[in-house]
Amino acid sequence: MKKLVILTILLVSALMGFSQDDDKLNIGGELYTNNRLRLNDTLPWSWNENRIDLQLTRKVSGFGKFNADVWFRSFNFSENDLINPYYKSNLTLPFSYEIREANFELYDFLIKNLDVTIGRQRIAWGTADNINPTDNLNPYDFADIFDFGRHLGSDAIDARYYIGDDMKIEGVFIPYFKPARLPFGDWWQAFEEDNTNLPDTMRITETHNIIPPITLNLKYNNFTYNYLLPENKFSENPVYGLKVAKTLFGFDFSVSYVYGRDGLPLPSESNVTVDSLSSSLDTAYLSIATKLIYPREHIIGFDFAGVIGNFGVRGELGVFIPDKEYKLTINSPDPNQMITLPLDFKAEGMPEDSVVLSSKPYAKYVLGVDYTFNWNAYLNFQYVHGFVNERGNGNMNDYFVLHFEKKFFDDKLILSPADIMAGVYDWTDIPNNYVFVYMPTLGFQATDNAKIEVGARIINGKGNGLFSKIQDKDEFVISAKYSF
Amino acid sequence: MKRITLTIIALVLVTVTANTVFAQNAAELLKKMDNVIYAPKDQKVKLKIIIYDKNGKQKIRKADSKQMGTDYRLMRFTEPASQRGIAFLSLPNDVMYVYLPAFKKERRVAGKVKTQNFAGTDFSYEDLESKPYTQKYDPISAKTTSDGYVLEVKPKDTKSSAYSKLVITLFKNNYYPKEVKYYDKKGKLFKIMTNKKIEKKGKYWTATDFIMQNLVKKTKTEMIFENITFDNGFTKDDFTVRKLVQ
Predict the structure, then answer these.
(1) Is the Cβ of B28 closer than 8 Å to some Cβ of chain A?
(2) Do A411 and B120 touch (CB under 8 A)?
């Protein structure tokens, strides 16, 4: 708490005390609450988020701008501490704060037409809506899994050099790698490793055939994951980005390159250990400890945006090239530690080492179109090849994302009756490999600055895709936002 | 019979000649009006927009706007808080960008938006477009009244316009429009724009307070220009995506 107070004072002081003739400090932001009810038999509350998003900006004439964005958030439900429930306020009222952004922008830095932003910042690349294969500098923030486009801020230097009025060269340096934030609550199951393929039995053989082979049933007690961040040395941590953007024939184009790491980890080594054997000696209870790493990759990007007739059109391509082949090593249990006989035993039947990410390049792309109707309605459609969590050559799936909204009563009522995401994991067997997420919402703009929204998320799917794993988590959502 | 034919020919000739004269007058007046409205090289203004619903309830928007010539405009909302930082950049050839601070990026906007209302007001993007009237409209007729002129014009591009015709009343002394009546595609009057306050700032006449009434929805929007300055020396560099996102 003390740290928080000091931090707030420092931020405000920095923003307020630069010099006499600066433009004034602008303080704004949002109060936001989001609550969700799981649509199953008992209707449990599944999400309770309350936050203040405090945004501070100060323009300094002819110099640049300071920006800060801090979230003060009370998230989730009270927990019980049976020993001393009243003295641990953070259990009763969970609270956290987070500096989403804190940076300063310098205009015409050292030379004319060079703008530089230093500090924690969001560097949003790409032209598509929310799902951007070229937006790979900031790690994803999957805390709320339905907020696809949300990213964490990165501590970075972003330099943009403008040539004429239609060309830009941008270079980004992020000294420290940060992984993606995984979903809160039980939504993390969407990213859970698939453990259903683990063997049910293990065969123990004795090398000299003195004892006949034994087949053990396997029960898995425990899975633990150890997330290994890259070594703290300069060659391993930084993320680099370069982008050239140009307007040609009325369209905006850009090509980009990023050398970074995937913010979602990959399993690299699993150690399988036997916790115990059943008294009848026919069942082994196992634990699996898996190390996860963040693969290095090169990403070549391309995007465009423009207008054809009355339609806005945009497209984006990211070609991901892992720096090497990534393998998962399985260390099977040593039966000699279970069986205390002076013989040599071997375990068979455990999974073999496997390639979890080939070094072959793979591509993700998005094509989108939007249209504004004369009757106060808006339509946006995107075709997505390769969702944010998908990776590896041959592992991309196809998704179709539709958003339609219509405003009524002087824009006071905003109805989105057809927000849909449909995906196919295997075109040869669609009935068993699909996802369909229906997300209708109804918003009420109570005042210019206050909006209340109710909606639902109905998830239906089969197969092994991200959303199929969470298809039992249909929800009713109510949220409210006040901007100040 | 011969006399009747000659009379008809004479009548037709008179009508055609009269129409041509009216059209010529109308064209001249339209040009004079453009010369007055678009005289400054550029302008910078703090804009206050008051939107009245049919019950008279008000909503206020504020924005900083700058404009150069007829093709370059950059407008950034400062109020209400929910729209703070949202900015629009208009460039030649109907190129339009919007900057959405929540997403930290600019976005190309389709031209169709022009026939839509701007930011919940009674002005459409077409109304606020700073193209000279002579480029957008053909004169139909003109007449002189005791205190001004009344011009009737129709859109050159009827497809992309929401209007069938406009009737513009001009002040006699400076050719600045006093009132513009907008007729829908069916020829029915549905919007009236009235310049409430016209001032001479330096060497330029300008409207600093004007109202658009929507007769169908029974709503109105008032725009008030504060701190207006002209000929600020803007260049094309002040109307770029770089400036939009700064």
Answers:
(1) no
(2) yes
Chain B partners of A105 at a C-beta cutoff of 8 Å? Answer: 246
For chain A, the structural domain boundaries read: 108-396, 401-484
Instruction: For residue B6, give the 3-state DSSP assignment.
Output: helix
Peptide bond preceding A230 in cis form (omega within 30 of 0): no
Is 50 exceeded by the pLDDT of residue A18? no
A250 neighbourhood in chain B, CB within 8 Å: 93, 95
The token duo for B185 is: 């595609």
Q: For A448, which of B80, B105, B239 is closest by C-beta distance? A: B80
Of B59, B115, B240, the CB nearest to A165: B240
Residues A446-481: pLDDT tens digits? 999 999 999 999 999 998 888 888 888 999 999 999
Q: How many angstroms separate the Cα of B58 from the Cα of each of A141, B61, B62, B111, B197?
A: 39, 10, 13, 29, 20
Give the residue from chain B lying closest to A371, CA to CA.
B110
Query: What are the domain boundaries of chain B?
Result: 3-67+120-231
Are B111 and A483 a contacting pair at CB < 8 A?
no
pLDDT single digits (tens) A58-114: 988 878 999 999 999 988 766 655 555 555 566 667 788 999 999 999 999 999 999
Gap between the Cα atoms of A115 and A125, Å rounded: 17
Kindly list the distances between the CA atom of residue B157 and the CA atoms of A189, A375, B164, in Å, as whole numbers in the listed order: 56, 21, 10
- pLDDT of A290 higher than 70: yes
A155, pLDDT greater than 90:
yes
pLDDT at B18: 44
Chain B residue closest to A252 (CA)? B108
Q: Identify the closest residue of chain B to A310 by CA–CA distance.
A: B112
- A422-431's contacts with Cβ under 8 Å and 24+ in sequence apart are A423/A387, A423/A397, A423/A398, A423/A399, A423/A461, A423/A465, A423/A467, A424/A397, A424/A398, A424/A399, A425/A397, A425/A463, A425/A464, A425/A465, A425/A468, A426/A463, A427/A398, A431/A462
The arithmetic mean of pLDDT across residues A289-316, rounded, is 95
Q: Is B115 helix (H, G, I), strand (E, B) or coil?
A: helix
Q: What are phi and psi of A206, to 5 degrees?
A: -105, 135
CA distances from A264 to A120, A141, A267, A293 (A): 21, 11, 10, 9
Query: Please, are residues B96 and B89 in contact by the beta-carbon 8 Å criterion?
Result: yes
**pLDDT band at residue B64 under the 50/70/90 scheme:** very high
Q: Does B92 touch chain A (CB under 8 A)?
A: no
| Residue B23 clears pLDDT 60, i.e. is over it | no
Handedness of CA A76, A82, A84, A86 (dihedral sign): positive
Cβ contacts below 8 Å, chain A against chain B, sum to: 77
The whole-angstrom distance between residue B34's C-alpha and the CA centroid of its chain comes to 11
DSSP B188-236: -EEEEEEEEEEEEETTEEEEEEEEEEETTTTEEEEEEEEEEEE-----G
User: Residue written as tokens 């009713």?
Assistant: A476
CA–CA distance, A138 with A55 (Å, rounded to integer)? 19
pLDDT mean over A15-43: 79
Q: What class is the B3-67+120-231 domain?
A: mainly beta
The kind and range of the H/E element at B128 are helix B125-128
Closest among B128, B129, B105, B135 to B34, alpha carbons compared: B135
Query: Which of B103, B108, B113 is opposite residue A372, by nearest beta carbon?
Result: B113
The predicted structure's pLDDT at residue A10: 55
